[in-house]
Amino acid sequence: MNPRLSLHLDLMRALAALVVLASHFAYERFSGGALRELRDLNLGSDAVVVFFVLSGFVIAYAAETRDRTAARFLFNRATRLWTVAAPALLATMALDRTGALIAPQAYVQPWFNDLPAAQMLLSGLGFSNEWLGQGVRLGSNGPWWSLSYEAAYYLIFAAVFFLDGWRRWAIALALCILAGPRVLLLLPVWAMGVLAWRAIASGHVDGIGLATARLLAAAPLLLYPALLATDAPTQLSALTSALTGWSPAEIVVHLRFSDEALWNTVLGLLATSHVLGMARLTQRTAANPHPETNAGQRAIRYVAGASFSVYLLHYPLMQFLHVALAGLPEPLRAASILVLTLAGCFAFAALFERPLAQWRELVFSMGPAGLRRACGAAIT
């Protein structure tokens, strides 16, 4: 991949992770309501859509250029998820139990769902908490929902990409039924990232003129705030109500995190347009395969390299700090929650996310001989 484009995708990923964190910090119990505008604009939900587009792009890129076989694809995707998700889930359980001992009144619905440990582990590590219309919150870790969506998309993609004949469509259909209609509503958004990679890999982006590329890259940055200013999300929610016959409150109940599917589709198109435009524009500066590294680029890579950890751990950590630091005066308490949450997430990433290659080598070396033969020697 063009290294300049790779850096830009990392910038998008880093910003999306920080926006999600900031939007949750904006809850009054964490920040005292200082960032209420982030909640009003629902920016955190919009940032998850950017994650979906980037995920589809990277998964398609990895499958085509690195993995190449179904076994290696599944191994790499499973280790990418589990090496961070397993310790994050255990940390969530520990933080929730400790926080509930300190302040039981803070660990109640809708911020907390008290599940048996076995169900937490099975649903969380199986990424099935949103499948078949379940809609199960894992303790205080609300953001886990998107992993359930992503895992389903990985499997559906693998069936379509690596299989052929009747098996491709039979298994893909079975997986779609297992995921359920809520999850499938956002599959087109994720698939936009796949199509963006295919457009680049097939050379179609090469033929885009520079003026058109600038328009593709810049227009979404202007259209997004304009759409928010005209309250497009509410208008599209009204259209969803008209199409389904459900009230806005019923839409949330029935569709949960897919309640803004129409607006999310618009956002997916904007994000995809931006990626395609940047893919063409960065070609002009891609002659040097190792772009000069400066402080800004290092910061982007550093934050992006912890984005999965930030996403998965920040909410239960904030919830715990909210009760653990309850005796501090404002605004010291809110500032401490934010700083300690970021520090905790980056420390977690240093242990579990950044050493992905080493974790994969360990799992690979301990796996059965059949796994090693199926995946081959090179694990990336």
Structural key phrases:
380 residues, mainly alpha, 19 helices, 0% strand
Q: What's the helix and strand layout?
A:
Blueprint: H1 3-25, H2 28-31, H3 36-41, H4 43-67, H5 70-102, H6 117-125, H7 145-162, H8 165-179, H9 181-185, H10 187-201, H11 210-229, H12 232-244, H13 248-255, H14 261-281, H15 295-304, H16 307-324, H17 332-352, H18 356-366, H19 369-375
Strand content: under 5%
Helices, by number, come to 19
Largest sheet: none
**Can you give the helix content as a percent range?**
over 70%
Low-confidence stretches: none
Number of domains: 1
Which word captures the global form?
globular
Instruction: Report the order of strands and helices.
Output: HHHHHHHHHHHHHHHHHHH
What does the average pLDDT come to?
Answer: 92
What Rg is obtained from the alpha carbons, in whole angstroms?
21 Å
Classification by helices and strands: mainly alpha
Beginning-to-end CA distance, first to last residue? 15 Å
- Tell how many strands the DSSP assignment holds: 0
Q: Can you give a write-up of this model?
A:
Helix 4 runs antiparallel to helix 5, helix 4 (43-67) packs across helix 10 and helix 16 (307-324) packs antiparallel against helix 17 (332-352). The mean pLDDT is 92. The chain is mainly alpha-helical and 380 residues long. The two termini are 15 Å apart. The longest helix has 33 residues, at 70-102. It is globular. The protein has helices at 3-25, 28-31, 36-41, 43-67, 70-102, 117-125, 145-162, 165-179, 181-185, 187-201, 210-229, 232-244, 248-255, 261-281, 295-304, 307-324, 332-352, 356-366, 369-375. It is built from 19 helices and no strands. It has one domain (3-375). The chain is 74% helix and 0% strand.
